[in-house]
Amino acid sequence: MSDPTYQPPYKPVSSTPYDQPDPARVGVTRMNPFEHFCAVCGAGAGFGFGGDFMRGEPGLWACMKHRAEVEQRWRRG
Ligand SMILES: [Zn+2]
User: Where do Pro residues bias regions lie (predicted)?
Assistant: First the structure.
């Protein structure tokens, strides 16, 4: 995730680097290909809550910085 040369294997939602916040990507989740961005800031998200692949439920995702905040949001439902 910290590799600055990292490029997702799909056409990005925007030209913003994967690990940078972007309002256009807040809460974006797509199943095919699978990609997910922070529900708070839109940066590439490494932490997911409540996802269920078998039911096609992508869950709620968060970057490192907003992990606790998004987890709380998910717990509240
Ligand atoms: Zn974030």
Answer: 1-11
- In the chain, where the domains are located: 23-76
Q: What integer best gives the mean pLDDT of the chain? A: 86
- Can you read off the two tokens belonging to residue 48? 């997911």
Report, as an integer, the average pLDDT of 34-60: 90
What does the CA dihedral 77, 41, 18, 47 come to, rounded to 10 degrees?
-30
Å from CA of 36 to ligand 1 middle: 11
40 Cα–ligand 1 center, Å: 5
At a CB cut-off of 8 Å and minimum separation 6, what does 21 contact? 38, 41, 42, 43, 63
Residues 8-28: tens digit of each pLDDT? 566 667 788 889 999 999 999
